[in-house]
Amino acid sequence: MPANDLQGKFMRVNIVQAIAFASLLQMACITFAQERRAVLSGSVRAAEDGQPLQDVLVRVVGISAFTLTDARGFYRLERLPQTKVDVVFERIGLVREVVSVELTELENTLDVSLRYVSFKSAEVIVTAKENAQGGELGTTSRIERSAIEHVQASSLADVLQLLPGQLAQNPTLSGVRQSLLRQASLSVSAANPSAADRANALGTAIVLDGVPLSNNANLQTNLTILNSAPGTLPPFASTEGRGLDLRQFSADIIESIEVIRGIPSARHGDLTVGAILVQTRATAYAPQVRLRLNPQTFESTLGAGWNLFEKRTSLTAELNFTRSQDDPRRTEETFSRLIANLAWSQQWDNAARLTTTLRTNFYTTIDERQVFAQDRQQVERFAQDRGLRLNLSSILRFDDDSRAKLTWTASLNYAEQLGRFQELITRADGRFPLSDATTDTTKPGIFGDIEYLNRTRVQGLPLNLYSRLELTYKTLFSGTSHQFFVGTEFRLDQNRGEGRVFNVFEPPRQNYSVGERPRPFSDVPALVQLGFYLEDRIAAEILGKNFLAQAGLRFDNIQPRGVFDGTFGSALSPRLNLTLEILDGIWLRGGYGVTVKSPTLSQLFPDRKYFDLVGFNYFAPNPAERLVMITTRVVEPKNPNARYFSATKSEIGVDLSIGGMSANVVAFRENTAGAFGINRLPVVLTYPRFRLVSAPAGRPPEIAVAAIDTFIGAYDMPVNSRDIFSEGLELTLDLPEWSAVRTSLNLTGAYLRSRIIDNSLFFNTDVIFGTTPPNRIDVFQSGGGRESQLLTTSLRFITRIPELSMVVSLLAQTIWIETDRPFNRGNQPIGFVDRQGNLNLIADLPPQQPQPGLESQRPILWLFNARLTKELPSGIRFAFFVNNALADRPLFFNPATGQSTQRNPTLFFGAEVFYSFQ
Q1: Which of 408, 478, 724, 755 is the most buried (most CB within 10 A)?
Q2: Helices (H), 204-354
Q3: DSSP three-state, residue 371
Q4: Number of domains, the chain
Q5: 3-state SS class at 302
Q6: Recorded GO terms, molecular function (predicted)?
Q7: Residues 95, 114: contact at Cβ < 8 Å?
Q8: 770 Rama class: left (phi>0) / alpha (psi -120 to 50) / beta
């Protein structure tokens, strides 16, 4: 994008945000009729010694009223509805407490005692907890620090196994890790994820400390050779066109995680599936050291936090280093990670009306396969991501009880992504013609070497900018509590990397007249998004029962041409969540919403395709007498219909909390329209053929045009033609501890049924690769796709022994149903592409329905894991785990593919030592 265009966009965005800011301030001045409001106050103390606890977050569920305790441990919440409310008390290092209280008076008192997180405490939580009546009314799971520690996760991906429907995996770092929420995998193999699985990961937002991270500017890809499937992954580790690599996030520096799988708040944009909200630490805590070791991975983490200047300033520093080998016996394949976090938080006045937080995050990941000593092909793979994230946020509260506040957030993420690979290429057919032309032309080429070492390098410099301006206003009106959110967002994704670089006369392996050319990323335009949203969170009482609602409306403009018009579309997304307490402890809830995700730069702006067509080939013994004439044709892949893809989500569920037992059951349905996939398309090109006129000695021959020939080739193109359908049922059940054996039960499970259909035309390009040039390419009504089903349960037995400061958990995971089958396109052509490149469709043909293929049904499968965490004196903690304790890996023969695979992860174990300086 030219600098003046980019500057113009920034100016327009600033004007829009200025207008929005003025509107927000005007809203803050609106006054509502005064109603009877309740006040809740009290003190928070440590259960161990009775000392007051400062900086404990006290919030009311459903209306998001909150405050922090002062140095005396005192808190005060005003303007609350006179009804029954749930109050949450939480702080890093303390066991989270939820207390129900009836606010019958104007002045109400509630004193609580909190325990420090310790395995001496019977309340320590080591599983994910459903948070149906929290700030997000859509289905949300919350994973606390104690649960993350007990899992002994090496990355964010390992923590997700605590969610309903997620399968336990070994904490390895040997390959790219992606999320897959509320969808049964639709991939034939993990090595080549399906378009549905890629869209699911891309449509899951990763929100780090309030800032959504973006993978839209990732261009780390390679040109797929035509005898591979369309969309084959590049030879180096890359998440281009997909979600972020979850290996990038160490679980050791995460304080808590919330996973939104239901209808998200209107505050969340650029997503379809849901959001993973990751919170790191930005407060004082004792210095900590953590070491983790398993057969593949060594990980160490250092961290500490300090309060300064009368506790109005806090500083947090954390460092994580990880080294992993795919196979302990081989040192050539490794993964390394380095993360350094620094967080500064400042309270500018005693009343904490203005606070500012600055977070810096430096990260480096290296995934490489070095040359094996005995490898004649000298194959090498290397992928490195390193970057710097800056996140600045400020909160301005207009009054002491935070009734109105203004939040501003800005983030910059600048990274270098480097991928490279090398391979010794041998041409069995001898010297082959090469050209370096980058335009449509015919000119002499050269004869390449029979054998050479290709080195290809792909360097990207993605830049992601993000800003949010939001006004929050809380009020009581006619006995109903309202919390309004009004905000605007700006996002920019850009890549100015060197691009894909190699010697054009030593190119990567290709075939079928496909040419290879370098590509600079500087010719890729930037992607700009504007978002506006309005939301009201309502808490009321209906017939003596609590009622909660979350109603929002969001507008997204992708690549704005104006405030309300975008090059790649603009969308209005309504979202609604309702929750009603039908009986004491029994809640009925439901939701409906629309979510929208922008395409990535690689999907919007694919590289040009080059074809080198040989019109004359004269390879004389004397190099001076040789001549090869090559006609280069350049194809500009363009998708005029490229635009955002969207999901329509609905769910209904029941939440129970009775006598220490809690249960959550939710049924959901999600339809995603217009997701991107890679299709192989034909192209018809003309080029001249030459004849020999004379062959003089000592110089190239003289030639003349003999005829104009036609070549039919193929190229891969991103197309937004996939529709994805998912539905299912999720279950979570927590039973109270059986005191006789000090054991509680946690059951999670899910039934998932997912399907993907390609609605574009299918071109039978396979005939191009035969020995005889085809006269036409048959065209079929596609409708091809795949369907999968998964029914799984995870039963956890959790035994707490406070006297021994020990927690033991056993997992029994069962896959009851796991099936998949393809949907084949119709076998009757509906048209053809002729040798002139014309698409000829047959009129008045009846529509053809996709034909289901052979179903693969796997038998029931069990997996047993065990974990133990033990606290020792002086702040030392030891943990041990073993996965697939029975080493059960049954072999399954898939009749649809004719291949056998081993199920279940391998037997795996590891240990961890943690020390906290007291």
Answers
A1: 724
A2: none
A3: coil
A4: 1
A5: strand
A6: siderophore uptake transmembrane transporter activity
A7: yes
A8: beta
Nearest to 535 by CA among 482, 464, 572, 602: 482
Amino acid at 710: T
Q: What range does the domain containing 210 cover?
A: 3-30+117-759+785-824+853-916
**What single string gives the DSSP state of each residue in 328-369?**
TTEEEEEEEEEEEEEEEEEE-STT--EEEEEEEEEEEEEEEE
Q: How far apart are CA 501 and CA 520, in angstroms?
A: 8
Bridging pattern class, strands 107-109 and 891-894: unpaired
What confidence tens digit (pLDDT) does each residue in 512-547 have?
Answer: 888 889 999 999 999 999 999 999 999 888 888 889
Q: How far apart are CA 44 and CA 75, in angstroms?
A: 8
- Under DSSP, the state recorded for 697 is T
Three-class HEC string of 765-802: HHHHHCCCCCCEEEEEECCCEEEEEEEEEEEEEEEEEH
Q: 774-792: string of b/e by CB count within 10 Å (b at 16+)?
A: bebbbbbbbbbbbbbbbbb
Whole-number pLDDT of residue 29: 37
Strand 560-562 relative to strand 565-566: parallel, antiparallel, unpaired?
antiparallel
Q: Is residue 534 part of a domain?
A: yes
**How many residues does this entry show for the chain?**
918
Q: What angle do CA 763, 768, 769 make, to 5 degrees?
A: 125
The closest alpha carbon to 395, from 225, 260, 210, 564, belongs to 210
Q: Which residues pair with 45 in a beta bridge?
A: 52, 113
- Residue 135 banded pLDDT, cuts 50, 70, 90: low
- The token pair that represents 886 in the structure block: 């029975």
Mean of all residue pLDDT scores within the chain = 88
Query: What pLDDT digit, counting tens, does each position of 199-212 carry?
Result: 999 999 999 999 99
If you search the block for the tokens 């009290």, which residue do you land on? 42
294's tokens: 């398993």
pLDDT of amino acid 4: 45
Nearest to 726 by CA among 786, 639, 678: 786
pLDDT score at 56: 84
pLDDT at 64: 61
Q: 903: part of which helix (H) or strand (E)?
A: none
In a domain, 74, yes or no: no
pLDDT tens digits for range 26-82: 444 333 333 457 889 999 998 877 888 877 888 887 666 778 787 788 998 887 877
- Residue 905 burial (10 A CB sphere; 0-12, 13-18, 19+): middle
CATH code (residue 642): 2.40.170.20
Query: Can you list the positions of beta strands (E) in 448-559?
Result: 451-460, 462-477, 480-495, 499-501, 514-515, 527-542, 545-558
702-738/743-758 β-pairing: antiparallel
Task: Give yes or no for a contact between 703 and 629, defined as CB atoms under 8 angstroms apart.
Answer: yes
CA distances from 21 to 16, 455, 461, 485 (A): 9, 52, 32, 13
Quote the CA–CA distance of 807 and 328 in Å, as a whole number: 30
Exposure string for 320-347, b = 16+ CB within 10 A, e = fewer: bbbbbbbeeeeebbbbebbbbbebbbbb
Does residue 95 lie within any of the structural domains? no
CA dihedral (711, 713, 719, 722) in degrees, to 10, reads 120
Residue type, 491: R
- Whether 463 and 414 have beta carbons less than 8 Å apart is answered as yes
If we measure between CA atoms, which residue out of 533, 532, 539 comes closest to residue 577? 539
Which is nearest to 381 in space by CA: 278, 553, 238?
Answer: 238
**Tens digit of each residue's pLDDT (9 = 90 or more) over 375-406:** 788 889 999 999 999 999 999 988 766 678 89
| Cβ 425 vs Cβ 455: under 8 Å | no
Q: Is residue 64 part of a domain?
A: no
Q: Can you read off the two tokens belonging to residue 891?
A: 């072999």
Number of H helices, E strands in the chain: 5, 54
- What residues contact 142, with CB distance under 8 A and at least 6 apart? 128, 129, 130, 131, 134, 256, 257, 258
Tell me the pLDDT tens digit for each residue of 814-850: 999 999 999 887 788 999 999 999 999 988 888 777 7
